Amino acid sequence: MKNLTFSLLTLVSFFSFSQSVDLQPRTVDYYLNQQAELEIAAYFEEGFLLDSNTLAPQYLDTATGQCNMDGYMKAMEIRMITMQNFYDGYLFMQKLDYEEDIYVLYFSLVGFDDMEWSIFKWEKDSWKNEEKLKSDRIGSDTTVSRILWNYDEATKNLENIRIFIINDYLIMERGNLYHSLYDLRSEKVILNEESPWAASDLAEGEGLRDWIRVNLNDKIEKLVQDRAEDK
Fold it and tell me: Is residue 175 within 8 Å of 206, Cβ to Cβ?
């Protein structure tokens, strides 16, 4: 298989440009759309598609008019390589200033649809406006540290993903439920579950949301309220 040259150059250009401007908040859909555009470009580069409606003859089952097994395998190969190149690090979503530090929410994709969110910390003079943070930086670069992370198997709790600060607590919210609480005063994680799905004994749908509400969201709300009352 070729090296997907055009797609990779587009990818490098995209992230290089992003680092030269002040980053605005991003969504998961923003990155999924970028990845989809690169994937489509790769289908043409690799000769899988001749135009938007036409498969290359070697990948067409003439009896059914559908993609044959070779075509299916080719499409999966192209998609996998494109995704591996695009999601080879952490992608910026949002940043917050607190005293002399910067706290940044990043998103990453593991496998085909498992999604992970991480909060990283920089001193303000070390923050370089990075839309993509390479994985090999973590642990080797002393200017940045990951303070917490959590993930979901498949697409769960993707609405209203954000971090915010209240009463000197840093909170991560996903799916309109609080998932993580970090104490900015003591610089300690107070509440966070790396895999709510696993911790809930593989609950699904509203069962998973109920578990998050009881074990994370409601406890976080109480701790925040208690601190407000102590002022």
Answer: no
What interhelical angle do 28-45 and 69-86 show, nearest 10? Answer: 130
> Same domain, yes or no, for 211 and 102?
yes
Same domain, 117 and 209: yes
Query: 61 — phi, psi (to 5°)?
Result: -85, 105
For the chain, the distance separating the N- and C-terminal CA atoms, rounded to the nearest angstrom, is: 63
List the domain range (segments joined by +) for residue 10. 5-86
Q: Locate tokens 């709300």: which residue?
A: 221
Residue pair 186/56 in contact (Cβ under 8 Å)? The answer is: no
Helix 69-86, helix 5-18: angle, nearest 10: 30
Residue where a domain stops, chosen among 51, 69, 86:
86
Question: In angstroms, rounded to a whole number, what is the distance separating the alpha carbons of residues 138 and 155?
Answer: 25
> pLDDT tens, 79-121?
999 999 999 999 999 999 999 999 999 999 887 778 999 999 9
**Residue 192: both structure tokens together:** 């966070």
Give residue-wise pLDDT tens across range 7-60: 444 554 455 445 556 899 999 999 999 999 999 999 999 999 999 889 999 999
- Kindly report whether the global pTM for this prediction surpasses the value 0.85: yes
Q: Beta-carbon neighbour count of residue 32 at 10 Å?
A: 16
Q: How far apart are CA 43 and CA 56, in angstroms?
A: 10
Beta strands in 15-134 (DSSP E): 49-51, 54-55, 60-61, 66-67, 89-98, 101-110, 114-123, 132-134
